[in-house]
């Protein structure tokens, strides 16, 4: 290769690698969080680490197929933006370098990226999906091996495959009192089989098959049809002692943790090519999968052409402009790709046209831009829109202010209003030493980097989410409004998750650029201290922390239940339950020794769908009665629950004979009102600190274990302070690597963020299994990283 080729490739590769590791690390941490409990299980049990390695390797292909093409497009646009901003492209063209010479190096890198992406889509991804599905099944087995520490008295355990376990009391030595087990049925019209026992314990064997649950003074109540007039065989078995095994079956839990049904997506490319569909819909799905696996790698070559055309014709704002435009183009491409895939699977467009349409559009746009339209695009860049729009709004505001003043006041216009924009910023004001001009400079640079990273990651997360749900959207015929609503209500959770990372990157980039350009040396020479220069950064961290507090206390308790609801609607195509663990049916512990389960609770109409109630004996835990109703609504006038279209079975104290009575309409006066079912959820993301404290007080009065809720309160308090910690850690690292540039700072930020979030998840799981005290499980990561950052900051040259 020529010297120019090597130079351009060395310019492109660092940007591609940095963006790739940034996106992959952030999305991987989010995806791996669902399996974080396995790390503690393996460490506690001393099990082989092979499944954990398989977990990491199984998650990566599904992420890399999305992040590598985006990283390549963003990396090329950033590199070309830097060359264009420094006028190096102008110098090269003046020296006789043509566009083909500028295109050849990105194209060589693009060929390598195309090869990696193609191999990933053709072979690695189907194998990884199969392996991940197997790990999802293994997850239940591994959790069973730590069940003796996982069970919390007074709470439901829903991670056992096909079973719901409730333990009322524990003697602290592994033996439980008053046990209730519901074995869910694969038939939608059957009530679960019920096990009740006065006492019992789990015996963990060397393998899953050797493990068993031993129940004393136990009874077994058979499954029963939910139809009120259907006669079905029913039995009650008073065995005295009972041993139950844990055979792995279908997990009725979170759809995100279930293995999808077999389909073309799980086949390697040779098998997919030979695949014989059994229906027209399956034929469209197979054809769409074939074209998608070819179109996505081919897009990398188009990205190379597009990046060079942008650099030659439009980009003059350097790397930041290249980063912004690259992210916007990547989001636009993947949105078009998702829309085309949906149109192909639904039959709205021919498969080949729908899947390849984004590639054709980008190729055509690159050709048009290279033909002279670049000057027009440069004149109307995003930055120019914002600047011109802001000036127009300011001038319009001043004009309206002058007109209103003249109409409502007899005095002359104030000088600042009469002279306009320039006078508004030069009006005299009191100076207290803050903010100074340098404070404004640092704060603006930090805010710009912060917003760029935050908005870019939010957009990429949205596209990744659509990429993950596209099959469900097409199969369940989900409308645009539901998908848009889900992304809207998902955004606050993503913002809350990404705020500390955006603060860290903004700190590293801002101080890194000041150090690289020697502006810090000038500021030091003028008498400015590093601690004084850091003040606007800490101010920005404080504002980000306040934003996190506002999201946690006011927005997330409203948005998270709604986005859970919409996600279940997308995944299942039916109305989802409102549940903490996201199961197919919600289970509640009621008052007066009752247990409830239901499919859906309409909080506006106070109405249950598929309502079940189990009354237990206060000492022996035997079943006194079980009731089922298709509907149960609250009568506010009589303050009663009205059950319709169901049945009620009662069990006498002595003897095993039971009586079943059909229900046309039954009124029950229970201690549980609609407010009880609204407030009983204990999901930290759906409750404010005040609601959690109220929950702790109520459960403490009932003598139940509230350590998890107390930990949740501490985590909610500690989480926003992570923004301060990120500033504290970022300042010394920015000074250390600052002379190497902003991209090195971003790379360091990726490593620090991965380490911090990994530590947070580890401490959270250690606290959940009570291997760490409550305080350290919530505050440990902040204290660990905060003390390290403070030491480095105090050791830095000021």
From TrEMBL:
Entry keywords, A to Z: Cell membrane, Membrane, Transmembrane, Transmembrane helix
Organism: Chloracidobacterium thermophilum (strain B)
InterPro entries documented for this protein: LptG/LptF_permease
GO terms classed as biological process: lipopolysaccharide transport
Signal peptide positions on this chain: none
GO cellular component: ATP-binding cassette (ABC) transporter complex
Cell location: Cell membrane
Protein's name according to its UniProt entry: Putative permease
Topology of the protein relative to the lipid bilayer: Multi-pass membrane protein
Record field: transmembrane: 12-32, 52-74, 294-315, 321-339, 351-377, 446-466, 478-495, 501-525, 537-556, 717-735, 742-763, 775-794
